[in-house]
Amino acid sequence: MCGIFGYCNYLVEKSRGEIIDTLVDGLQRLEYRGYDSTGIAIDGDEPDSTLVYKQIGKVSALKEEIAEHHPKRDVTFVSHCGIAHTRWATHGEPKQVNCHPQKSDPTGEFVIVHNGIITNFRELKTLLSNKGYSFESDTDTECIAKLFKHLYDTNIQNGNELDFHELTKLVLLELEGSYGLLCRSSHYPDEVMATRKGSPLLIGVKSEKKLKVDFVDVEFPDDNAQPETPLVSERSNGLASSRNLTVNGGRKVRLFDHEDRGNSNLLPIAANEFNLRHSQSRAFLSEDGTPNPVEFFLSSDASSVIKHTKKVLFLEDNDIAHIYDGEIHIHRSRREVGASMTRSIQTLEMELAQIMKGPYKHFMQKEIFEQPESTLNTMRGRIDFENNSVMLGGLQAWLPAIRRARRLIMIACGTSYHSCLATRAIFEELSEIPVSVELASDFLDRKSPVFRDDICVFVSQSGETADTMLALNYCLERGALTVGIVNSVGSSISRITHCGVHINAGPEIGVASTKAYTSQYIALVMVALSLSDDRVSKIERRGDIMQGLKKIPQQIKEVLQLEGKIKQLCEKDLKDQKSLLLLGRGYQFASALEGALKIKEISYMHSEGVLAGELKHGVLALVDEDLPIIAFGTRDSLFPKVVSSIEQVTARKGHPIVICNKNDEVWEKKAATTKMVTLEVPQTVDCLQGLLNIIPLQLISYWLAVNKGIDVDFPRNLAKSVTVE
Ligand code: UD1
Ligand code: F6R
């Protein structure tokens, strides 16, 4: 997920140092969305020059990069527009040339930050290359910057000195796909263009004096109204920037001749288009009618703006916002019937945490519902579903060494430990290496022997868990090869292990781990797939698993639709219960343990995951008609045994809640004749079924807790990252 941030000051004197700090701080506040590189563009020392700093990694790396170049921090600007970006690589890996801002040319006549994907970028790249442009990055965004320059230059050659927003309209005509973008240019100093289509963008407005109006009216091409009030702008207030005035010269030159291509998507340009109405709404006059010192904060996310101002204007798709000299002009290419004529400046009542939570009540709920996306992100760029192959960049060079191992030890705590248990069987089946799974604290307590030819895999969401870290150091001291499966890039475990895989689930904020579990699970399966990619005997099984993985995000989406039924279940059947048993075997034993942990930590209800085969060895004594039991009855080779365990429960008048596959006749019949409740999930490959089965349990734990009025994101006595032994 990329993040955009922009900062414009007008009649508010700021040093370059302050401007850099504001931009960098804005990026830092977008950090929770996850990213792999960052960058900013600001004014240079020479007139109309641009400084661009960018770096892969965290915002701290960008800070170091800027510091190394020693920009003069004490130069001051009365008016200035800077833009900034955090990037999550889509087109092109995270390397410096691929970071945003992207430039039109070495001097950066036009610089762009962009969220989204330009789907026709290859076509544009070919066209621009044919016109002599050379590209330095692999990004789609670079095309936009070059398109700006090309259209600017060609129009100048034709005697058209376009206003920045006119030029932007011409550029947007050529773009297909989605975007939220900011553009600044040395040809339009102290101006910025902000536009969006399918990607959020908002503008925060901060002024010392109270604003006269709380809206900005939209400008359409056929607007020909005269100014309602005398203009107070750069042209009259004496604080002018060197902004070009619009000259509506000859025919505007576009990249393609759309008429020739039969493209009816022509921009309706009325002759009086540029005789624009400058209303007070756009000029941000203060109540006494004087020019208002004003700052604008542009962002893809209110979380980075709220620190500066609560007054924000949300742009709509196809809005083209032009900011210059303390004014915001919102242009549309055409007037649509019923479309709003204004954009209101709203006062955000939300706190930062609320903004980050989106429409969800808690981070945990948000993260549960993010799983279709987070699981996809774990696999993105790593599994080739067409050729059934896996490529884990962080492990590739180490695979031969890992394959030579005589044993593999997975070490983790809590939920991360459960993801190891869930994948142990498929790991052994595919890699043919014996795998043991260890709780980090117990492993250390036992001072378990570790040898130089051991492979030790450390699984951790935070990458900072003290027990896991101690176990890692213990294994490093003994010369083992260490592999990390970690969510937090740059965390201790990620840095200290020899190699590993980032699960790319995005930041997990809720204390109860949910999306990290499903992503760890998939990452571990992918490691097992990588280790077995040289085995002919496994081709079919590996193919089935990869095709199964392909469907998982969509299937998780289906399971999430059970929320309504689960909510009811928690309000009725499970209400006021003191204890709960979860039964599973084989692949589903881990689901039972993880489900029980979720319920314990969030709803404070005692719950226990029991291996269904162990029921008759003692636990059965607990079963009566009152004890709530959740059983995993999805189809795999152990299905008959699971059915028999559940029958032992129903024979003792228990009425379990069974998580089963859709339209499974066995459970349909039983549910029809007993009080048994079923929660149906889609079927997948046996070793992946746990990815779907855990979702109802995450939802059950969530709703049990919410019904009790517990603050789900901050359960008592628990911390997100356990950095003490
Ligand atoms: C990397 C990039 C990713 C980019 C991709 C494109 C990073 C963090 N990842 O992903 O943004 O899209 O290339 O080619 O820059 N590692 C450990 N221990 C761990 C986890 C990882 O040592 O616990 C190491 C890996 O061995 C590797 C590096 O960290 O050297 C990055 O790992 P990972 O993000 O999984 O690699 P890629 O998927 O290749
Ligand atoms: C449970 C939970 C904890 C963590 C455990 C390990 O919901 O969050 O059990 O799984 O503390 O943490 P990481 O994965 O960060 O090492």
From TrEMBL:
Keyword flag Repeat: yes
Keyword Transcription regulation in record: no
Catalytic activity: D-fructose 6-phosphate + L-glutamine = D-glucosamine 6-phosphate + L-glutamate
UniProt superkingdom: Eukaryota
Pathway: Nucleotide-sugar biosynthesis; UDP-N-acetyl-alpha-D-glucosamine biosynthesis; alpha-D-glucosamine 6-phosphate from D-fructose 6-phosphate: step 1/1
NCBIfam families (UniProt xref): PRK00331.1
Protein name: glutamine--fructose-6-phosphate transaminase (isomerizing)
Species for this entry: Torulaspora delbrueckii (Yeast)
Taxonomic placement: Eukaryota, Fungi, Dikarya, Ascomycota, Saccharomycotina
